[in-house]
C-alpha cells in the first residue's frame, strides 16, 4: 500500500513540474528573445520568425542546435541577412553555448560586454566574418571567453590595433585566428606572440600592418602551420628565425615590399613546408607550392629547388631574379605551373623542362631569355598556357605543334625573334583561344584551315612579313573572334565583308585567369612595339611595365585592365580590328558599319578606294578610327560626328573632297588628321571659300555645302570679315572645350572597363 502511494506521489510531482514548465519559458528562451530584440533591428529574410515567447524550449528554432539534455550548444545564423548592432551579453546566459556562427550578416558593434566577467562562457568557435564591424575590437569579450579555439573576424572594416589579448595573452586553446580583410594598422614587429603554443593558423592578410621586419616572436608558435600576412605594408628582409617553425606548411608574404635574398637558414629547418607564398626557401623536400608574386626578391633562383621532388606550383613572377633557369626543376613529374615572368632571367631554356609531363602552365614572359625553345618543351603534352612573349627567342615554330596534344589554349610568342612560316599543323590546336605571334620575323601565308579553330578569340599577327590574299584565310568564318590584329604585314586582297556576319557564338572565352589582361593604348603616334596591343599579364607588374615605358619610345602608352568577361552579341563580336600597313585594295565593305561592339578600327596605310561608308554611324562604341594613307574619295560623312566615344579620327592623305561637317566633334580634331586630301576644307583646315565672292553659309550633316554669291561693297565686306573672325574665335574655344570633353569620356569609359568587381571570396 505504501509503495503504491509512493509511485502515485512521484507521478503527480512530475506532472506538476511539467505543467509549470509549459507555463514558464526557460531562461534560454528569454535570453535568446532578448538577443533578438536588442541585436536584430531588421530580419528581411524572416530567419527568426519562429522565435516566439510561447515556445517551451528554443531547440526547435531555426539556427539553433541543442544537446541531448535540451541545452543550446550551437547558434548558426550564417547568411541569414540579419541587420543590427550586436549585444553579446544576452548570449552569455547560454551556459552551454560552444559554437556561434554569425557570418554573412550586417551586424555592427565591437564585441563589448557590459559585465566585467562571464566565468561560465565556454564558447569555442566565434565566426563574425563578412559583417559590418567597423569599430576597434573590444577586449572584454576575449577576457571572459577564454576557451576560444577558432576566431574569425575577417572581411569587415575593423580599424586600429590588434588587441594585446589576442596576441600576448593568447588563450592556450586558440588554434585559428583570422583577422584578414580589415583596416587594422598595427606595427606588426611590435606584437608579442606569447601563449600561442596551440596556434595552428594565423591570417592577417589584406590589412595595413606595417613594420621593417617580419615578426620574430612568431617562433613561440611551434605548432604553426599556416601564416598569411600578404597584402600589407611590411618591409625589410625575411628573418632566418622563421626557419624555427618546424611545422610550417603555408607561408604567404606576397605583395608587401620584402627585399633581399632568401636566407639559407630556411633550407634545412622547414622540411614540412608545403605551400610558400613569397619567398623563403633553399632546400624544402616536402614543398608543394612556392609562389613569389610581386615583390623585390633578388639573386639567382635557388638550385636547391631541384630537390623539391613534390613541387607542384613554382611562381617567382615579378621580382628581381637574374641569372639562368637552373636545370633539374623537372627532376620529378609533379610540377603543374611554372611561372617565372617579369624578371631578369637570361640564357636558354633547359631542355629538361620537357620532363615536366604534367605541366599545364609555363610562363617565362618579359625576361631576357634567348635561343630556340627546345623541342622537348614544345612537345609538353598537357600544357594549356604557353606564354613566352617579350624575350629574345629565335628559331621556328615546330611543324608538329599540337600533334601530341590538343590541350593548348594560349600560345603567346609575341615580341621575340621567331622566323619561318605558320605551318598548317597549328590547326591541330583545336582548343586554342589565344594566338599571339606579333612582332616576330614570320613569313608566308595564313594557313587555309586556321578558321577551323572555332574557339579562337584573339588572333595577333601584326609586325611580321606575312603575305598572300587575306580573303583566303576566311577570317569571317570564326565564331568567337574578338581581337583581330594583322597590321604591318604584306597582305593583299579585299577586306572580307563577312567579318561582321558572325551569328553563332559559344561562350567559351572568358578573360578570367589569375593574371588578367592589359590593353596598351598609344595616345600619341609612337614607335612602341607594344602600341595598341593586348598582352597576357599574369605575373606582370603594371608599375614595372609603365616604368620601363618612360625611358623609351613607349612613353605615351597608357595601360588599361581589360574586362574579365567580354560579352558577346548576335551582331558581331569583334572589339579590335587592325589591318593597317598592308596592301589591301578595293572598297570598305558597308557591313563593317554593323560591328557595333568595335572599339578600335585601323585600316590606314593600304590601297583602299571608294567612299567612306555612311553605315559607319553604326560604330557606336568606336573610340579610334584611322583610315589615313589610302585613296578614299568623296565627302566625309557627317554621321561620323554622331559617334559618342570617337576621340581619335584620322582620314589624312586620301582623296576626300568637300567641307568637313560641323557635327559632333569632327571640327575638334587637329588639322593633321585631315591634311593632304584633294579638296577637303573647313575647320580645322582652311575655309572652303575658294572664290573671293563666295561665303559659306552652312553645311548639313552629309557635308553638302550651300553658298551664296553676292556683290557687296567694301563696307559690307569688312563687316562680314569681322563677323566671321569673331565667330571663328568662338568656334575654336568651343572646339578646345569639346575636345577635352571627348578625351574625358574615353578615359572614363576605359576606366570603367578596367574595373573589377570584388567578390565575397576575394
From TrEMBL:
EC id: 2.7.11.1
Domain Leucine-rich repeat-containing N-terminal plant-type: 26-67
Coiled-coil ranges from the UniProt annotation: none
Record field: transmembrane: 714-738
Lineage summary: Eukaryota, Viridiplantae, Streptophyta, Embryophyta, Tracheophyta
One Pfam family this sequence matches: LRR_8
Broad EC category: transferase
Keywords for the protein's UniProt record, in alphabetical order: ATP-binding, Kinase, Leucine-rich repeat, Membrane, Nucleotide-binding, Repeat, Serine/threonine-protein kinase, Signal, Transferase, Transmembrane, Transmembrane helix
Reaction catalysed by this enzyme: L-threonyl-[protein] + ATP = O-phospho-L-threonyl-[protein] + ADP + H(+); L-seryl-[protein] + ATP = O-phospho-L-seryl-[protein] + ADP + H(+)
Signal sequence residues: 1-19
Gene3D superfamilies in UniProt: 3.30.1490.310, Ribonuclease Inhibitor
Domain of life: Eukaryota
Protein name, UniProt field: non-specific serine/threonine protein kinase
Protein species of origin: Hibiscus sabdariffa
Amino acid at each position: 500500500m505504501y509503495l503504491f502511494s509512493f509511485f502515485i506521489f512521484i507521478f503527480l510531482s512530475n506532472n506538476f513540474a511539467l505543467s509549470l514548465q509549459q507555463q514558464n519559458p526557460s531562461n534560454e528562451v528569454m535570453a535568446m528573445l532578448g538577443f533578438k530584440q536588442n541585436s536584430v533591428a531588421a530580419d528581411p529574410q524572416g530567419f527568426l520568425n519562429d522565435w516566439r515567447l510561447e515556445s517551451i524550449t528554443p531547440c526547435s528554432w531555426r539556427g539553433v542546435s541543442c544537446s541531448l539534455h535540451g541545452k543550446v550548444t550551437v547558434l548558426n545564423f550564417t547568411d541569414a541577412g540579419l541587420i543590427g548592432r550586436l549585444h553579446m551579453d544576452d548570449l552569455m546566459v547560454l551556459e552551454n553555448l560552444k559554437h556561434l556562427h554569425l557570418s554573412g550578416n550586417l551586424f555592427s558593434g565591437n564585441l563589448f560586454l557590459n559585465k566585467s566577467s562571464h566565468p561560465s562562457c565556454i564558447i569555442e568557435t566565434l565566426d563574425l566574418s563578412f559583417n559590418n564591424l567597423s569599430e576597434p575590437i573590444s577586449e572584454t569579450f576575449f577576457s571572459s571567453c577564454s576557451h576560444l579555439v577558432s576566431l574569425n573576424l575577417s572581411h569587415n572594416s575593423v580599424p586600429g590595433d590588434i588587441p594585446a589579448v589576442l596576441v600576448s595573452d593568447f588563450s592556450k586553446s586558440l588554434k585559428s585566428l583570422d583577422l584578414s580583410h580589415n583596416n587594422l594598422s598595427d606595427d606588426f614587429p611590435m606584437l608579442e606572440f606569447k601563449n600561442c603554443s596551440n596556434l595552428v593558423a594565423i591570417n592577417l592578410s589584406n590589412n595595413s600592418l606595417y613594420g621593417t621586419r617580419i615578426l620574430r616572436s612568431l617562433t613561440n608558435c611551434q605548432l604553426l602551420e599556416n601564416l598569411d600576412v600578404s597584402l600589407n605594408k611590411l618591409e625589410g628582409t625575411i628573418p632566418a628565425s622563421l626557419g624555427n617553425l618546424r611545422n610550417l606548411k603555408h607561408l604567404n608574404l606576397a605583395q608587401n615590399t620584402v627585399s633581399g635574398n632568401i636566407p639559407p637558414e630556411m633550407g634545412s629547418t622547414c622540411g614540412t613546408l608545403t605551400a610558400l607564398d613569397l619567398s623563403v626557401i633553399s632546400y624544402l623536400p616536402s614543398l608543394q607550392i612556392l609562389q613569389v608574386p610581386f615583390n623585390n626578391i633578388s639573386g639567382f633562383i635557388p638550385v636547391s629547388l631541384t630537390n623539391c621532388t613534390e613541387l607542384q606550383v613554382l611562381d617567382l613572377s615579378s621580382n628581381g631574379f637574374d641569372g639562368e633557369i637552373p636545370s633539374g626543376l623537372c627532376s620529378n613529374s609533379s610540377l603543374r605551373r611554372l611561372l617565372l615572368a617579369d624578371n631578369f632571367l637570361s640564357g636558354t631554356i633547359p631542355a629538361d623542362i620537357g620532363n615536366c609531363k604534367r605541366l599545364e602552365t609555363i610562363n617565362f614572359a618579359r625576361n631576357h631569355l634567348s635561343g630556340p625553345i627546345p623541342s622537348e618543351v614544345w612537345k609538353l603534352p598537357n600544357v594549356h598556357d604557353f606564354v613566352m612573349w617579350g624575350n629574345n627567342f629565335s628559331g621556328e615554330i615546330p611543324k608538329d605543334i599540337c600533334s601530341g596534344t590538343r590541350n593548348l589554349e594560349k600560345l603567346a610568342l609575341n615580341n621575340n625573334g621567331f622566323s619561318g612560316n605558320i605551318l598548317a599543323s597549328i590547326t591541330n590546336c583545336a582548343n586554342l583561344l589565344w594566338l599571339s605571334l606579333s612582332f616576330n620575323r614570320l613569313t608566308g601565308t595564313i594557313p587555309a584551315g586556321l578558321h577551323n579553330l572555332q574557339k579562337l578569340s584573339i588572333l595577333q599577327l601584326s609586325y611580321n612579313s606575312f603575305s598572300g590574299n587575306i580573303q583566303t584565310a576566311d577570317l569571317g568564318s570564326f565564331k568567337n573572334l574578338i581581337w583581330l590584329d594583322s597590321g604591318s604585314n604584306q597582305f593583299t586582297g579585299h577586306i572580307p565583308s563577312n567579318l561582321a556576319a558572325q551569328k553563332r557564338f559559344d561562350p567559351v572565352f572568358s578573360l578570367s585567369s589569375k593574371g588578367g589582361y592589359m590593353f596598351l593604348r598609344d595616345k600619341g603616334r609612337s614607335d612602341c612595339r607594344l602600341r595598341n596591343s593586348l598582352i597576357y599579364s599574369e605575373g606582370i607588374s603594371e608599375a614595372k611595365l609603365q616604368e620601363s615605358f618612360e625611358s623609351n619610345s613607349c612613353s605615351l602608352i597608357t595601360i588599361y585592365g581589360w574586362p574579365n568577361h567580354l560579352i558577346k552579341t548576335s551582331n558581331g563580336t569583334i572589339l579590335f580590328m587592325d589591318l593597317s600597313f598592308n596592301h589591301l585594295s578595293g572598297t570598305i565593305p558597308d557591313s563593317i558599319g554593323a560591328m557595333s561592339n568595335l572599339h578600335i578600327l585601323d585600316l590606314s596605310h593600304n590601297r583602299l578606294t571608294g567612299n567612306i561608308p555612311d553605315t559607319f554611324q553604326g560604330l557606336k562604341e568606336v573610340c579610334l578610327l584611322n583610315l589615313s594613307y589610302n585613296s578614299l574619295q568623296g565627302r566625309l560623312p557627317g554621321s561620323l560626328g554622331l559617334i559618342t566615344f570617337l576621340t581619335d579620327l584620322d582620314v589624312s592623305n586620301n582623296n576626300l573632297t568637300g567641307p568637313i561637317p560641323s557635327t559632333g566633334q569632327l571640327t575638334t580634331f587637329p588639322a593633321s588628321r585631315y591634311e593632304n586630301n584633294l579638296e577637303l576644307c573647313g575647320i580645322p583646315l582652311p575655309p572652303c571659300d575658294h572664290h573671293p565672292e563666295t561665303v559659306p553659309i552652312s553645311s548639313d550633316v552629309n557635308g553638302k555645302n550651300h553658298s551664296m554669291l553676292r556683290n557687296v561693297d567694301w563696307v559690307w565686306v569688312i563687316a562680314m570679315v569681322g563677323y566671321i573672325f569673331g565667330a571663328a574665335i568662338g568656334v575654336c574655344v568651343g572646339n578646345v572645350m569639346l575636345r577635352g570633353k571627348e578625351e574625358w569620356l574615353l578615359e572614363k569609359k576605359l576606366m570603367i572597363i578596367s574595373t573589377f568587381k570584388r567578390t565575397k571570396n576575394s
